[in-house]
Specification:
Distance between the termini: 33 Å
Number of domains: 1
Protein name: Centromere protein M
Number of helices: 4
Order of helices and strands: EHEHEHH
Keywords: Centromere, Chromosome, Nucleus
Helix content: 25-40%
Strand order of the largest sheet: 1-2-3
GO cellular component, one term: chromosome, centromeric region
CATH topology: Rossmann fold
Organism: Sagittarius serpentarius (Secretary bird)
Radius of gyration: 15 Å
Main location: nucleus
CATH architecture: 3-Layer(aba) Sandwich
Largest sheet: 3 strands, parallel
Length: 131
């Protein structure tokens, strides 16, 4: 399911499936994109930041057109203890690899991978980003 911002409308709460992973998309070419994500973060329950949130940054292949500071993006990942993934959606191979990575994260967050929890996976992702 896609939403352009949070909070989600409450009139369909009873029909909404369980939310296992929230991927915030940030277009590196749009300051509005980052501003919208920051505003939406206030509507996410704190328990989701225990491995069930990630930031997906698009447009990284066009650093000459960046409107968003990379430090601001890295800071979001640190402040919210959530992994930051980078993707160039216009390149099919990278787009497919990113989709597969997100799917694997979703499987872990949904509890479909025995022996791996969203919390331990999130911690592993953060440690690998530090290396």
């Amino acid at each position: 399911h896609l939403a352009s911002s949070l909070p989600l409308p409450s009139e369909r709460d009873h029909l909404r499936p369980r939310i296992d992973l929230i991927a915030f998309m940030i277009d590196i070419k749009s300051k509005y994109s980052l501003k919208n994500v920051k505003a939406s973060l206030a509507h996410v329950d704190a328990s989701f930041f225990l491995g069930k949130v990630c930031f997906l940054v698009t447009g990284v292949g066009r650093v000459n057109y960046c409107s968003v500071e990379m430090n601001a993006i890295w800071n979001l990942g640190e402040v919210y203890c959530s992994p930051v993934l980078f993707c160039e959606i216009e390149l099919e191979g990278i787009r497919v690899a990113t989709a597969q990575r997100l799917l694997r994260m979703l499987q872990i967050c949904a509890g479909h991978v025995p022996g791996v929890s969203a919390l331990s996976f999130g911690s592993l992702m953060r440690r690998s980003a530090d290396d």
